[in-house]
Design a protein that fits this description.
Carbamate kinase; disordered N terminus; about 270 residues; alpha/beta
Length: about 270
């Protein structure tokens, strides 16, 4: 049950506290059962933080000289990452979708090298005003997407549920940013839209006031918006720019805490980048 000739929809849902996964799955199921080809990319940051802390290896986040925040992923953190993202979070989403009659298939970027990039073995971190180089990192950036494998699943009537990590060129598991990975997937599939859902309404003019939603940003204004944005929103905007540059028709950063969040985003509720 898929519209093979139609440009697919790629949805990224974050793993932060407050995200209504059931509402997202309800909406995905309605779209899929209506004949829409959908790829769902998900995170799992909040659950990973909980498990890592319970195992005595609490999360560590680093801020790059350019102001982007990311998880420092050493070998032990990668073990937790694989356990949570590829295990509990991915399979629970697949379970939810299958209960709703969706032919969901759970995958990580490692499977079939769906997501591939280069392994950055060190990362620069700004701490107390000084830049340090941290070694032993297992991160990277998606440089290639096995779109043919994803399209094969879509054409066969399946709905891919995809999560990091990616595979490095050498075959090592690497942590990659989920928003930028979803952007790469959307570009590789020639998606009509990329919807990025999180626990905020979209890009806010005032980070502490949800009523200050910025409803639209032109592609030419994304860099300025990134400079203004805080926290994870920087990566979402960066992913949006990469998706548009890769040929995606439109990106909407929307709210995953509301009913029918994907449908609402496609109707323009959120921040639209086009």
């Amino acid at each position: 049950m898929t519209a093979a000739a139609e440009r697919p929809l790629v949805v990224k849902v974050g793993g932060s506290a407050g995200v209504d996964v059931d509402a997202v799955c309800d909406d995905v199921a309605a779209l899929w059962q209506g004949g829409r080809a959908v790829v769902l990319v998900h995170g799992g940051s909040e659950r990973t933080n909980q498990v890592a802390t319970a195992l005595g290896h609490p999360p560590r986040f680093v801020t790059s000289p350019s102001g982007h925040t990311s998880r420092y992923t050493d070998a032990e953190t990668m073990e937790v990452f694989l356990m949570v993202y590829c295990g509990a979070v991915n399979k629970r989403i697949v379970e939810r979708l299958q209960r709703r009659g969706v032919g969901a298939v759970g995958l990580s970027g490692l499977d079939g090298r769906i997501l591939e990039g280069r392994h950055k073995r060190s990362v620069r971190s700004v701490e107390a005003g000084k830049t340090r180089v941290l070694h032993g990192d297992h991160t990277g950036t998606v440089e290639r997407v096995n779109g043919a494998l994803l399209q094969l699943l879509l054409d066969a009537g399946h709905l891919p549920v995809l999560t990091p990590p990616a595979a490095s060129v050498e075959g090592v598991a690497i942590n990659v940013d989920g928003d930028r990975a979803a952007a790469a997937v959307a570009a590789a599939l020639g998606a009509s839209d990329l919807v990025i859902l999180s626990n905020v309404p979209g890009l806010l003019a005032d980070l502490h006031d949800e009523a200050s939603l910025i409803p639209a940003v032109a592609r030419s204004g994304v860099e300025a918006a990134i400079a203004h944005a805080g926290g994870r929103m920087k990566k979402k905007l960066l992913g949006a720019a990469e998706a548009i540059d890769g040929g995606v028709g439109r990106v909407v950063i929307g709210d995953a805490r509301i009913a029918s969040p994907i449908t609402a985003a496609l109707a323009g509720r959120g921040t639209v980048i086009a």
